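FAQ: What does a multi-protein file look like?

Like this. Sequence, then tokens, then the next protein.
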Amino acid sequence: MRNTEAQNLGKSAIYIDGSDGTEEIDSYTLEGTKCLIAFENNGKTYSCQ
């Protein structure tokens, strides 16, 4: 996983439908209060708060 912001995600994880999807993240960007996450497997970007 590579990040586009200076943030340490060492203690963070992304869960998708109850499964750890952290290793599938290609990149993320913080925009205001939202985090935009792009996944390797489909190239789509998802927004979360």
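And here is the next protein:
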Amino acid sequence: MGINLWWVDQQQSQAWYAVQAEQLGRSLSQQKALQLASWVRNYDEQESQQRIQYALDQLLTDPHTVSATLYDFRGRFLAGAGRHNSVINAARKQFEKHHSLTAERLTFVADVVDDKQVIGYLQVQLATPQLMAHHTQYQQQLNQQRLVFMLLAALGALYITRGFYKLRFKFQRQWRAKARLLSKR
């Protein structure tokens, strides 16, 4: 029963892990894509290019962010900050992520939309170990607590079983003695 509870909890933990990582990355990339929309539309202006670069650099102030890259609607590189990769390398990393047990980066792509028209794409890569450090530490603590509770439950069951067998013989002797007394009458 303890193993079953542990297994179910592990599955729920992995599901929560995925949801938590996806939520942060998706909201971060979508929020920044909305901010970049007007500047991407006026990309030819020097001020817009500087603002775009500043916005991407600002994304890197988050300790979870590895890189931020901006592409136009055709997929051409416009600006980048951090250790950015090409779209092909990002696709390769996504493929490797799905075929490996641990992924070093989570990649999120958000459409940069202006007047209901896609004018670019923002790619944000987050470092998985830093992103999920608190969650991993929390799960380790829960696993330690579960182990202690399982050991305490096993120890309690052992003492209850031992006590039952000791008391059972004592009560059996008393019942036999009463039965003998009643049979002699």
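Q: Is there any per-entry metadata?
A: Some entries carry free-text notes. For the entry above: The radius of gyration is 31 Å.
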